[in-house]
Records
---
Amino acid sequence: MYVDTARRAAPRTSNLNLQIKPLISPLPPYLAFKEIWRNKGRFLLVSLVIALITTLVLFVDGLAEGLGAGNIEYLQKLNADLVLFQENVDLSVSASQVGWSNLNDIGRIQGVKDVGLIGFSNASIVLGDGQEPLDVSLIGIGAGKPGEPEAFAGRSLKGNRVKEAIIDRNVFLRTGLSVGDQFTIKTIQGIDEEFYTLEIVGISDGRQYFIRPSIFVPYLAWDEIKPQAFVEDTDRSELILNVAAVQLENPGNLDAMARRIEAQLGSVEAVDLKTAYQATPGYSAQQSTLNTVRIFTLLIGLLVIGGFFQIQTLQKVAQIGMLKAIGASTSTIAIAFVVQIVYITLLGVVIGSAGTLALSLSFPVTVPIRFTTESVILAISSLLIIGPMGGLVSLIYLLRIEPLTALGLRP
């Protein structure tokens, strides 16, 4: 009875000696790395081609961001929930006219927290030492009202009549002007050039508008300085600006408040910030063009990577046949092939990204190029995806290779 029990127990204890196979075999990555190492020159050349494609994609992406920001940066960062335009002007800032008399009417509407008028114009900052004047966007705002940017250095405007200005970061970088400095601004009044002196009281972050750096002055100073086709009558009935920036008590109720404001005023069109800046002349067409270039660049990368690995596969048909003949599974060879593509693509993207960063640091501030975390991550992710995609055709051909045919042993 004892012997029988021991015999029955023996098979159970022998099961403990079974080896557990690893879920992921180290063979495919090893094969991929070994081939790359034995053909360093060839694979490095392909990585450099991918690096150039990466540089092109990132620069096109940065150019799209930079040009877009140059057109809409101020409106995009506006401290408001709604922007009011004159109705029937197709959301054109330059064509829109909102009078001073509308200010109180908008402020009395239930649900409106605060409102400020904004006027847009152009001017030039006169620089010394024979330098060319710097063209800027001259933006009229209300002191302490929506539309006034936050000053990260210095202070805000004190009132609507003072000859003070807040400059954005781009003006600071291009001119060297700082808080406390006085500068001269030039505009055209009628047929004459007029010069005005302003004191810088604050510096904001980048707030470009219409591909120009911006300076912000109070309502009345803006009305006096702005270019005019002819000298206007100083006794006109009211101050006219371009749009109104509205802050709401409940920002989550945009659509309802927009309809309420339009219904009560009857002469304005209320839109959210995104709609307002996307209506900037040329912005949508510009971004569509650059996005098309992005797509075609990625397609070129897809074809280049796919073409290279197709040639590689044709050149090593005999080696693949040998691997299959000595027992390597099709899945092992396929995984090794995909891992190899990932290695080469990753190396090229890293080289290209580092080179792009180094080149961008050498650009002057006048070059409209801008890299954002979201856009760079999206571009790099797209490039890493097109590598394996480019090798799909080669992978399908590789899986169909027969060992005997590859070795010439069967017709």
---
Amino acid sequence: MKALITGASSGIGAQLAVEFSNLGYDLILVARRKTRLQELSKSLKTKVEIIPLDLGSTFNCVKLYEQVKDEDIDVVINNAGFGLAGEFTETKLDREMDMIDLNIKAVHTLTKCFLKDFKNKNKGYILNVASSAAFQPGPLMATYYATKNYVYALTMAIYEELRKEHSKVYIGCLCPGPVNTEFNKVAKVEFKMSSLSSEYVAHYTVKKMFQRKLVIIPGFLMKCSYYLSKFSPLRLKLKVIYHIQKSKLQ
């Protein structure tokens, strides 16, 4: 058994590596920071291959696939991504383009490449990591929310295609709320509500993935927020989200 995890150098990605290793999976761990990957690999119980690579490049995404496509991979976790906060007219365009490349294009490319192989084998798991941000627009984090909307919508569409084909391939979407990771520092935000631990999120995620849950939302409060948001008027949601994001800006 083998799992490939992107964005594996810290946070949810690193904890997912721990979970899968504990289940007996050999691992292919991908991230930019080689030293972090090396440190993580020493703590894991199974065989680990580390691939230091910036997946913000579509060329690198295809390169990664070509490098590992002949290995018998059972699980692909598209976890690499980052956030950015601020007024849309004030955030830097080049940083937003980097985020679109990583949060959208990398997920799209790797999902397409591996899904073709999984469909041919009629087995395999693909989990795309989005966010609770996937369910609504996000003033003051407009581009980040939009990227996670894309990941969520893409995953839902592919799920239905697979279902109609009676495929045994699984695809699902992880949509966590605040998690205690490096995300806050990179995005330059500070959550006012309590964050879940990455250990809890990873453990819950793996359990629900193997139960073939389509949308995985860790935490009772985030589940309540998800269902309530379905019945809230859009303009009210926008006002609430703006207020929440404003309070998070450092």
---
Amino acid sequence: MSSTPNIPDTHAAEAGVLPRWVTVLFVVAFALVGYLLYGNYSERQALHKTQDDAAQKSQAMLSELDKTNSRIADLKGQLDVMSQKLGLTEDELARARSLAQTARSEQQKSDVQFRQAIGAVQADTTTKFGQMSTQLSGTQTDLNATKADLEATKGAMQSIKGDLGVQSGLVARNHDEVEELKRLGQRDIFEFTLSKSSKGPEHVGPIQVQLRKTDTKKFKYTLNVVADDKTIEKKDKTAGEPVQFYVRGARAPYEIVVFDVTKDQAKGYLSAPKSATAGPPPGN
């Protein structure tokens, strides 16, 4: 019987050694587990810290609330002590509060009424100011219209030479224009109505005038002027013509203008220089 040599079992040796990739897989798995455990630990630590912070804040708020409640209690106690010292009951305190509220309401109403009154006064003042402005505007318009009428009347009136050859002032042709001459104030104006039936000279301003004759067809007249103790006859003068004569002390001539001649009357005016009418009129 022959013997078989002792040869090692190669397959058994290979079966006893682990493959390399299995070792690598175990290492990776172990590292992953460690990483997960570390992450879980960190999250738990952060959560605990957040919980601790929240707990501290809650505790601080509770502490502040306790302090506030304590202050309220102290204030209430002080109010109760003051109420007892003043002898006030709850009903009296309530009545005092009601009176205070009523006073505030009345004050608010008074303030509203006062503001309304101020507004009414301001509105009334504004209205009156507007009315005054309108009236002033109307007055200015009237003044402008009067001025325009005066200028128009002045333009309508003429300045012509009188019977002495002296250039006259503006000559009025009717009563309205005589009034305009008076408003101009350049000379003293005395309007008159002379009658032939008068027994003697009639006073016209500082002189005397007597109507002697009228001619309605030719619109002429004759009159005597009495001035400086002498009589001046103005014969056959035409209506609208300035009849001129000098009076002692006057540098410019007096002027008589007759603008209406009838059978028995003559209407017109005397125009005298301003500086020559201060003295009293002469006697008959």
---
Amino acid sequence: MTDLNPVRVGICGLGTVGSGTFNVLKRNAEVIAARAGCQIVVEQIGARRDNANCPTGDVDITRDVFAVAENPNIQILVELIGGTTTARELVLRAINNGKHVVTANKALIAQYGNEIFAAAEKRGVSVAFEAAVAGGIPVIKAIREGLAANRIEWLAGIINGTSNFILTEMREKKRPFADVLKEAQALGYAEADPTFDVEGIDASHKLMILASIAFGIPLQFDKVYTEGITRIAPIDVEYAEQLGYRIKSLGIASRVEKGIELRVHPTLIPEKRLIANVNGVMNAVLVKGDAMGPTLYYGPGAGSEPTASSVIADIVDVARTLNADPKHRVPYLAFQQNSLSDVPVLSIDDVVSSYYLRISAHDKPGVLSRVAQILSDLGISIEALIQKEPAPNQDHVPVIILTNRTQERLIDSAIAQIEALDSIDGAVVRIRVESLAG
């Protein structure tokens, strides 16, 4: 039996996720009400344009999203307009009017979350954002609540489906980056301007949110090291596979002795790891807790109804606790606001990793020994060294080196010295390597 008093929701944005949210709320109204203990009613929609895939019936639609934030009948505002300018103003106005907020906007939370949470705490309202990371995968709830007993040691995620699709196609079909990107755009996986996806910015937004929840640190997006996949060549994908690895764009957050590592970049992962076999546009997040050990969360990281699944889960959570004392609600970032840590986020120079290096060297005696000496002088040990056959009519040979774990600043110094050798042609290709061992 559900409560006679429905919870009234205003949806702002009727695009891919907004239409999916409305349609699933309507289709599954009975089961959602049974779980929430009350009916969830869409009172008003704020959208600049209609969506042919989303017949809204007699629901009131306004072209002014701020009217939704001002509507006194609405208890929960669902922000699905995207961007950070209008969305920030909309969310803050809704909070100021005493409304709870559900959002799928990772950029908004990563960049302005501290301000938004402070405003929400002052007004005693909830801000929920499960759909901001990994689409339909309930990974925020898993870390924030399911792993609450654990001290999280590290997490690593494939959290951008566009990049994962491109790298999968490059590996399986031996295609160049530019060719696959065009297909991704044609399929709707990548925007006309794909910068946010292929340069790692989208994944960095998501990683910052996950890291804050995992480690209890304030949001500080500007400290995430971000590197895209645009320079990955098919030959590196092929060599990685020959060595027993696969290249994935990973977001990595790790608690180490000196602080927190936050980085997004292409990464060689052993092919036997489950996360190395996450292909296409799918997402996955691997979390290592001290009590639980490693857990993997896998599923669609985008899409209309998968993302709507997470949005509605947040609406249900908020509806259940509408009348609860704010102190008894789950904290926004898993930890109580006054318990957030000031542990530093490390510079990429201080990060420790293993490395894949591809060098184009003159095919003559003594070159490899000079390269090995440079690495040795810096205390960098070599795990594997492979010299490939030169291409026809070429006097340069590709040399592949896998190093053991070392500090980033040392590998930077080594690369600079190697590139300065007369016997080396062009830039050294460097890709980080992670074992992700449980």
